[in-house]
User: Fold this.
Amino acid sequence: VPTAPAAVAARPCAGPGGAAEAALLRHLCRKVRASGPVTVAEYMREALTNPAQGYYTRRGGIGDSGDFITSPEISQVFGELIGIWYISEWMAMGKPNAFQLVELGPGRGTLTEDVLRVFNQLASVLSKCDVSVHLVEVSPKLSEIQARMLTGGKVQPNPEDEPVYMKGISKTGIPIFWYRDIQDVPPGYSFYLAHEFFDALPIHKFQRTKKGWREVLVDIDPEVPDQLRFVLSPSSTPATENFIQPEETRDHVEVCPEAGVIVQRLACRIEKDGGAALVADYGHDGTKTDTFRGFRNHKPHDVLSAPGTADLTADVDFSYLRKMTQERTTTLGPIKQREFLKNMGIDLRLQVLLQNSRDTATREQLLHSYDMLMNPKKMGDCFNFFALLPHHRLVQADKKDKPELKSPLPPVAGFNELLLK
Assistant:
């Protein structure tokens, strides 16, 4: 019989909420009764993206009224600096005549809007470049919010069986397309953006025991009906065999195979078509152990209670993402958000905004949001930036021909100080 780790006691499932919430719990309990305990990954997938009761499919609570708040919701400066990062990379790579901006899980569309504002302000720089936006979004509710924010509602739905399920034109005149899967995005020179995307993908959890690695599973508590608890698999599972690296030194490990697959796809695309990917997320470089947690109304929420009503998340393991690029691309980072934003010139941008703001309330808001983004105790240290770039962006090929003619490669903004000519 699987045993629950002593540290993880049973947690009550009943909680605030109505019939819809109980429905997902009943569905999960039926699943467990029919075929035994489920993996944490399966539990997360159901809780977040179940078509009827999943957290993202039903609500997607971003912002002050939701369950969590993201950097673009705090300050427009965040997205503007990311927009500048893409333009600086586009220039460093010789100003290709077209690029796609591809965002994975764009939330409300706030970040895309801030990036597009910068593209519009620098329209003279981008004048000869053909720019299009491609959003990968599974939630029908969030894609509606994005469409309203980015196009003012000027969108048309596409036939269901088409890879593009919706398209429109941004307020600044840039075409925008919506997809359910990154594989549907057409090939081509692309800049990818994944902000707080990887942390919501389903993870498997593993515990080292005297008998070797065991997977942590979700089961019904035999003593309390309709209450879930963590248990350990009695023997090793296929995931244990496949996802634990032989050199692993930690005693508890979280692995997100879906993140690995997506990073592999990004690396293949960048290797083949050029471009770059910027990933910003909570995370660590292969050092943390148990980071699986829930948020509801901006407060920590028990991950096993009232599934479907809270945002579930786990820190991104950047060392795993790096490994999964299989050296198809160069990787930079992770570096802390405050270092990245400082390198991108956030201090100068803040000064300009402060000088231009007429009233005290706006100034206070600017300083407060700067503190949220940069303070090591807030988002400054727990958020990281990580980039995938083509090898030739950092290593010059064919130096031997005429090395004296080679100009040095410009540094990568954010990871070094921003130098814009």
